[in-house]
Amino acid sequence: MEQQQQPLQIICLQTYLTQYHYQSYSILKQYFLERIRLSIKPLSTTSNILFNEIRAQHPTLVILPECTGTWLYLMCVPMPQYLRNFFFNYQTTKINRHILFICYTLLTHIRLFTKEIYKNYHSKLTWLGLIKRSWFSLFSDQTYNIYKKLFSELSYETNCTIVAGSNFMYEEKNFYNISYVFEPNHGSICLQSGKQYPVYDEISFIDNYQKQPLIYSIPNTNIDIGVLICADSWIPQVYEQYNKIELFNIKQRRFLFIIIALNLGEWNILWPGYDYQHDTPKDVDNKHINTYSLSNAWFHYAINRAIDILNKQNNLIGYGVICCQGILNIMNDIQAQGESMIVLKRSEIETKILYEAKTYKDEKILICEF
């Protein structure tokens, strides 16, 4: 019996996250829950009871930015309430408190950190990479369990398929930046994707994910999705791997590339060119380096690459690219700005672009149907 196909509601959450949201499980979950339910909430619903019970009635895809799970380690450090208020609840000061938080964590977990140093001693060549890897792996098991529980509950409670950003974690003795997708029926993991081309901020402590990419078919639709983590969307070799997937050849299907990203630093800068860790593709125009804005470069070399690949698939009846960028400020230390975008081609003659950008303390929710 042929499965009934329904339009897919897309919710792209360009979150603005700070240390405040990561101080407890309940605060972070409520933050995501409110924004998801706000996006699928019927216009006629005004009751708080109805709001708290709202679930998507049609297939719904929710997308969050890269590294959403990375900062969960902030929850894993026990401390008295006055220190918790000092680190997590301040609003106006511009003092960097992340270094103090790291020092406190190391003082209270020195034995565990020493074990992580010993465990990872032969994994990386540089001392800085060893320290970073040992730090992020210090609570990696706990953060993974929190990450899995959080997004499993969110997907089940909202009846949404959720692309849950990414998290640093071990898999088969390697340390990866991995994104998971959670399905709504049971809240279980239905797809995982790893970062194949870590950038210079990660290359000293993150391993290259070398497994072949997979895709996921969203239930009750004719839509398949593939997830790319940040700079992987700039690399032609990644798309060549997707070209080998047989499901691309099934007729009457649609496909979405989901790009989850986090651009550390300021957004309104000139594009400096490709990360020096990776070879620059031959089709890159050198005139664009230091003349294109970062947003124009993202559109030209990431979004357009994905669109061009999908445009060559003769069997697809529709396709699109969704890029979800996050906005971040963790203890006035780790900061990120970005721009989220949805590009859809529903038919041969229709192309729709949803384009939103914020480069200050704000958040955006992009919503559309496909």
TrEMBL record:
Organism in which the protein naturally occurs: Rotaria sordida
Superkingdom as given in the UniProt entry: Eukaryota
What name does the UniProt record give this protein? CN hydrolase domain-containing protein
List the taxonomic lineage: Eukaryota, Metazoa, Spiralia, Gnathifera, Rotifera
Instruction: Show the InterPro entries listed in the entry.
Output: C-N_Hydrolase_sf
